[in-house]
Amino acid sequence: MANPSSHASTANVQPMFSQQINEIPRSQQLRYPENHPDGVIQVNPMSEAGAIGSSLEDETGIIPPLVSPPATPGGTIPPSHTHPPKLLERLPEVECIVRARIPTTTGAEMFLHLYHNDVDNKEHLAIVFGNTIRSRSLDRVRPGECERDRMIRGAYVGKLHPGRVSSWYEDPAQRGVPSGSIEDNDGGAVNESGLTPERPSEAPLVRIHSECYTGETAWSARCDCGEQLDEAARLMSLPMGTLNEIASQQSRTVPSNVSGGVIIYLRQEGRGIGLGEKLKAYNLQDLGNDTVEANLALNHPADDRSYGLATAMLVDLGLGVDSNPHGIRLLTNNPDKIKAVEGSGREVIVKERVPMVPLSWQTGGKMGIKSSEIEGYLLEQISKMGHMIQ
């Protein structure tokens, strides 16, 4: 993880504030008590807060910290604050702990994979559509486990059903495997060497998605994260005939999903700063900052996310360069994410960037999020973060 101090330290942000403060007459400066670490802060003498401060000083002799230093909303962010994500020298160690079939509200099915890793204690997820993408670490036979153990943790082929006894075949009798031959004498699982995993026939769709509680669960119109998650799932799950029909009705094209797709869901809320700090940033936005400025005002980088875990999870899912010659098609508007996902050793190859154009832009406002705040957010993504929404 990048060191926040190298991106948004007090040394980088505060000189602008200090210069403004020093140019204000001392009589118009708002001061903390002598033992307060923040010292002098600026107040506009014409503001209501300035008038309140004057009246409070008359009564108590101390002016409380009513106004913080200005954050210069709309100011220029130095390029160093928006540099590409840091590439890790080595990929994290990841292991898929459990996988389960999820029937969705749209009628489509996907397999939810839960991952552990050696970098953090968070449970990151992979949402897999289609039957050709499987986890190596999940399928690996574990010492002492029986067939039922494997099925419970999701290491099975096909689908589960009542009475199923083999993780390798849905119906061993139909495959010429005698009943009871699936387990060895110690009760451990036996890998049927005749099984060869299917491979994607072309580059599958992949979305690297960072958790966004506010946009996905709390219906926030400050960002389009929830819409992008829904759109990625739709593109990966619907039959091509249905997708083409919808596309023709809305006068837009859709990428092929015949090889299935994967949404890597990383638990890095608020561009890596966490939900609590993200909500503080929301309040700063209401005070006039944009999302980049708000993060910097809280002494966080503009973007503190990393994608090494995503690369390692894609490799585990058989989409690395060592086993997938087709590469992947990455659903993203962020060109910097391409290199970050490929990794320092190009462990994954991004064959194509597939843009995620907001639905409101695609449909002329007939669909998607309708909010002045989302328009400002999208323009900021283009102007300050270098996103390509086209």
UniProtKB/TrEMBL annotation:
Gene3D superfamilies: GTP cyclohydrolase II. It comes from Aspergillus lucknowensis. This is GTP cyclohydrolase II. Keywords: GTP-binding, Hydrolase, Nucleotide-binding, Riboflavin biosynthesis. Its EC number is 3.5.4.25. Pathway: Cofactor biosynthesis; riboflavin biosynthesis. It catalyses: GTP + 4 H2O = 2,5-diamino-6-hydroxy-4-(5-phosphoribosylamino)-pyrimidine + formate + 2 phosphate + 3 H(+). It comes from the Eukaryota. Pfam families: GTP_cyclohydro2.
